[in-house]
Amino acid sequence: MEKVRAHVFIEGSVQGVFFRANTREEASLLGLTGWVRNCWDGRVEAVFEGEREKVEKVISWCKKGPPGAMVRDVEINWEQVTGEYETFSIEY
Which residues are part of the catalytic machinery? Predict the structure, then answer.
């Protein structure tokens, strides 16, 4: 399976709705590694690494988000896989 890395920015009403915790749960269930964090400008930023199909699945989830979120836009930047993460975590 092809491994990929996606650096994602999620815009909308995405802070204060458990977006990070739910993203970590979704990514972990899919066996992805990386991290998620809140940005100072109100967006949520995440890096996902893993099998292409699973990364695309979590990106699709990010376009909707958890209950209470109102996602306006998802910016996806495909990058080189680094393999630097062992798990998926929330960064502060």
Answer: 20, 38
Coil, strand or helix at 50:
strand
pLDDT of residue 1: 83
What is the reported pTM? 0.96
Other C-beta atoms closer than 10 Å to the C-beta of 60 total 10
Q: Distance between CA atoms of 24 and 31, rounded to whole angstroms?
A: 10
Distances (CA, A) of 91 to 3, 13, 24, 45, 51: 23, 19, 10, 10, 22
Range of the domain at 75: 3-90
Distance between the two ends of the chain, CA-based, in angstroms? 31
List Cβ neighbours of 29 (8 Å cut-off, separation of 6 or more): none
Maximum distance among all Cα pairs of the chain, rounded to whole angstroms = 36
User: What average pLDDT score do residues 4-16 get?
Assistant: 97
CATH classification of the domain holding 58:
3.30.70.100
